[in-house]
Amino acid sequence: MKMNKKIAIKLTVIALLLGIIGTFTHCVPQIAKEIGDGGGVERDRIETPADPGDKSEGQIINELQVTTGMKNHEQILHTMSAVTGIDPYGANAGSILTIYRQVEASLPTDNDIKIFTSTQQVAVTKLAAEFCFLLTSGNFAAQRLVVWPDLILNGQVQNEFNSTKTNLFIEDTVNAFWGGMLTQEEYAMAEIEFQNLVTSLKGTDTTSTAATGRVVRGVCTAALSSAYITLL
Amino acid sequence: MKKHQLVLLVSLISLNAVAGPREKAWKLHNRLAGVPPVKTTNQDPDLADPLKAMTDAISQNRPEDAAEIATKHPNFYNVVLKNWIKPWTNREQTPRIELNDYVATIIGMIRDDVPFNQVLSGDILYTVNGVTAVYSNTDNNHYRDAERANINLMNNLMRQTQSAVTGMPATAVAGVITTRASGESFFSAGTNRRVNRFNFINYMCRDYEALHDVNIPDYRVRRDVERNPGGDSRTYKSKCVGCHAGQDALGGAYAYYDFVNGRLVYSPMVVVTKMNHNVYYKDGYVTTDDSWINTWASGQNAALGWRGATSGNGVKQLGEMFTRSKAFSQCMAKKVFQLVCLKEAINTDDVEMVNSLADQFEQNNYNMKDLIINTSVGCIVNEDE
Questions:
Q1: How far is Cα of residue A93 from the mean position of the Cα atoms in its chain?
Q2: What is the per-residue pLDDT across A6-42, written as a single tens digit (0 to 9) for each?
Q3: Residue A35 and residue B193: Cα distance in Å, rounded?
Q4: Parallel, antiparallel or unpaired: strands B311-313 and B291-293
Q5: How far from A72 is each of A116, A231, B37, CA to CA, in Å?
Q6: Predicted ipTM > 0.90
Q7: Between residues 68 and 97 of chain A, which touch chain B (CB distance below 8 Å)?
Q8: Cα–chain-centroid distance for residue B126?
Q9: Taking burial as the number of CB atoms within 10 A of a residue's CB, which of A129, B51, B68, B102 is the most buried?
Q10: Which pTM was predicted?
Q11: CB contacts, 8 Å: A78 with chain B
């Protein structure tokens, strides 16, 4: 017990001494706060050399040289605008800016793909959903016609999404939003995923016209929030 | 691995692996304009179908022409350049700030091919046409409103002389250093040391840690720097002096400037109080005028490639000295490389490319737009060949 007390006292004294040294060993204590980091305050940096064989996943990712980037918040907004033809600053598109302002802070700040997070993807999807909502609204029929020239939005889902028209719809979506940059293999993969999505969203009521809009918005949002849109 | 993750991975890989002229054109446009190339109703055929025009240019071995088409997109200015420059204008180095006069001026200089070595010395300021709020020395409303309305900067930036707009004497104007945004971020409170540090960070690509040199004379170190911090003068000699001997010797240039009541104020022949307050060492240097000396021109920091006069008076001359240096050209090339190539120049090939681009930048009368075009061609069009 006595020993423990002695050790405790010794440790306290050492800690206090270190504290005093730490407090008084600097250049301009009073000014430093006013002038930010630029006032001549030296930052002690003791870097332990890392063992190359003992790196965490984060370190490895950080050291990787990549040549692909993630679009930043404004680039994402303007890319969605470019491919849909909807100007978010234009008439009847105010809701896009409203959503953009809501999610702006969650969208990427810069082009560093290594710090892209799932939260940012959620924000991208939310913004894409709003673009697609407007693209299927009455105010943007002209823009919709450019993207899907053969689509009859108020047509029955069994007609608009029969086998032939579904394929055409997917092709139009990929061409409009992804610029037709896919290889055949990639296109085939994407097509399968979109086919599955269409099937899921069609529902059971084959005569429904509401389902047509639902499918269009679903596929549109999926395509518009994909890596083809957000990658740089 | 889940299927959607696989799709994403394949997509990521394929975007890099596929490298025909069309794919390169697509990537080039995305990097420079921030958006993919889409057809428009523009009268100019290159802009009406930019993907085709750029693909043709790359196929015909005219990659610079392809890149130039992308720079004619409004978002090259409104989105890409704006977000690139914004971090230079605030302490937090973030692009999440309003458009301001500092950013607008650099965008305008790039658009008009103004030699970029005037950025820290020219009597130049860009305002925006079509904004109700006029330029003000005391607020940022003019630029804030321009950005909120998404005004096309490519078409609406208007070149002015800073002295005419702000009323500051032409001899006291020093490019973006004396803009209002710079005043607010770098001249407010403090001791006017911050502005010098950020000039080094932004235009020489070096913070003080990299310039630290304890072997140069310290006769210009001011009185607010303790010579025996913690009662030990060795700390001053081995640490503090490494930055202060250089920065305080340059700091005189800012002696007549202060940011007061929302505006950058220039008081000719009157040294602002904050330059000499807080006396911790009475025999330290007292700033009496706006003279400066570059003590970092010798010793290890001579490697920055200083050219011409290394002493002078005022910020304009100081800005000229910065932009005459080799380090300035290399820094600009490095920043542009990072912007369009999306990586640091670390490996030998990249470092050589940056050095070569810096040389071209100087030979090309410091044309920043050409530097951006040449860099993008180097790392996007030529990389896979």
A1: 21
A2: 666 666 666 555 545 544 444 543 333 333 333 333 3
A3: 7
A4: antiparallel
A5: 10, 9, 17
A6: yes
A7: 68-69, 71-72, 74-75, 78-79, 81-83, 89
A8: 16
A9: B102
A10: 0.88
A11: 34-35, 75, 79
